[in-house]
C-alpha cells in the first residue's frame, strides 16, 4: 500500500503517556489532529489529561491549528485498537531496550505496514530497537526535547534496516506540524543536542562536586549569559557574530590558544587547518552573504525580544 | 575619601573601545550616565560610535533611562583626562596580562583612590592584573557576556588584594544598572559561564572535527533544543522541572547511570551521595517552595513567549 502524503495524516497514535508521550499528545492535538494515546495502565489517563491541559495554556497562546480541540484526545489500553487506524505512530515508552524490542515486534504486526513508526528514544539506536520487528523499514528515531509541545527540535536517524524514504517522509511530516527536524547522517551516542547539553551538564556537576560553583550560580550564569544568546542562534553563529567583521576565522585565530587553557575539564581537539576551515565554511553557509552589521542587528533585535519575553513572564509569575 | 553611594554615580569611564568596551559604553549611556570612553587611537572613534548607534536600536526597544542620550558620549585619547572625574571605571582592553598590569599601574595613580576599577577580563585573574597597582584594594573583575548592552550576566571576583567591600559595592552598582552580578567565591580559570559554554563548544569542535555533525546541525540543535530552555532557566532547574514531581532527585537517580555513557567526551564526576544532595538542595532553594505544577506552568509561559519572540524577530529579519 502506498504511504499517505504527510498532508493527509489525520490520526496520530502516541504510545506512552509520560512527560514525553503526553507532551507529544498535546502537540498533535494543538496542530489539529485526532490523537489516540495508548496507556500502559488506565490509571495514567488522569495525569495525562492534566499534562495536556497544562500544556494547552501555552499552546493556545502560541496559536492552535484549525479544528484543534482537547476533545480529539482518545485514550485506550488496547494496543491493537490504538494502532489499527493510525496514520502515524509516535512511540515514547521508557528507555529500556528489551521493552522497546518486544514492543516493536508487536507494532510490526499491529500497525498497517505503510505507516511510519517514530521513536522518541533519547539514547537507544534504531538498529537495536528494530531488531525483532518484521517491518523495520518504516521505523525511525525522532527524539524531541522536553517539553515536546514547545521546543521545536526533533533529532532523526534511521536504523540499519530503515528505508531512507521513511526518514525523508517523517522529516516532511514534522516540518508540516511545526517542528525542526534535524536529520543525522549516522547513529551517534546521545545524538547531537544531548551530547552538547551533556558536556555542559557534566562540567556543571564537576564544579558543584568540587565546590567551585553552587547550583544557583550555575543557573544564573547560563540563564543571564550564554542562554538567551543560544535561544537566538547556535554556538557557532553566536561566536561568528560576536567576533565582528572577522567572524569565525578571527574567533578561531584569536581564541585558538585558549582552547589549550583549563577553561573546562574537556580537552579540545587539535585546531587543525581542516577543522578551522570547516568551522569557517559552515558559518559562511549559515550567514548566506549577510555581513557582520546585518547579522549583529538581527541578533540584537532577537535578543532584546527574548530578554523582554523572559522579564515579562517573570513579572507575571511573581 | 569615602566612596560614593552607587546611586550617586554620574560619570562612567570606559577604557577600551572594542566590542566589549564599546558595548559597555552603549549600556551605560542607555542607563542615563555621562560616559567617557578612552580610545587608544583617535581612529577608533568612528567604529565606536557606529557600534553604539547600532546598539541603541535595541536599547531603545528595551527602554532607555531618563536622560539617556547618545550626546552623553565623550571620547578622548588622554588617559589622565578620561580618569580624572570618573565615578566608576570599566576597563576592557585586550586580554594581555603585561598590558593590563602596566595599565593598572597607571590607573592606580590616575583614578581617584576611592573609585572602583572593574576589569572586563574573561580569563585573567585580578590577583595578577593588580600586581603592579598601588591601589589594588579597589580593583575587581567584572566579566560581561557579549553583547554587554543586552546580556545581563556580570561575573565578579576580586584579586588577593581586593577589599571585600569593593566587590560588594560593584555588585550593588551593577544591580542598579540592570545587570545580574554573579559574585564568585574563588578565582577559577574561565570563571563559571565560560567554563560551561566552553565544555559545550569543545564537544562541538570534536564533533565537527570527526565528521559527526556539521556546523549547521550543531547550531540548529542548540537553538531549537536546549537553547530556548536555557534562556528561561539554567540547566539545573531545567532538569528539575523536566523530571516531574520527583525533580532533581528523580533526575539523578534515573539518569545517574547515563553519566557513564559516552554521550560526550567529557567524563562525569562520580555521582556521590554528597553531590546528589548538593544538586537536590540547590534546586530546592531555587524552587523556594513552588511545586512541579507551578514551576512547569511558569516555564511553559516563559518558553512560549521566548519562542514567539524568536519567531517574530526572524520574520522581521527576512
Describe the fold and architecture.
Two copies of one chain form a homodimer. Chain A has two domains: 178 residues, NAD(P)-binding Rossmann-like Domain (Rossmann fold); 93 residues, no CATH class. The first copy, chain A, is 50% helix and 12% strand. In chain A, strand 7, helix 6 and strand 8 form a beta-alpha-beta unit. Chain A is globular, with a radius of gyration of 22 Å. The termini of chain A are far apart. The model of chain A has no long low-confidence stretch (mean pLDDT 96). Chains A and B meet through helix 2, helix 7, helix 8, helix 9 and helix 10 of A and helix 2, helix 7, helix 8, helix 9 and helix 10 of B.
Please summarize what this structure is.
Two copies of one chain form a homodimer. Chain A has 318 residues and is of the alpha/beta class.
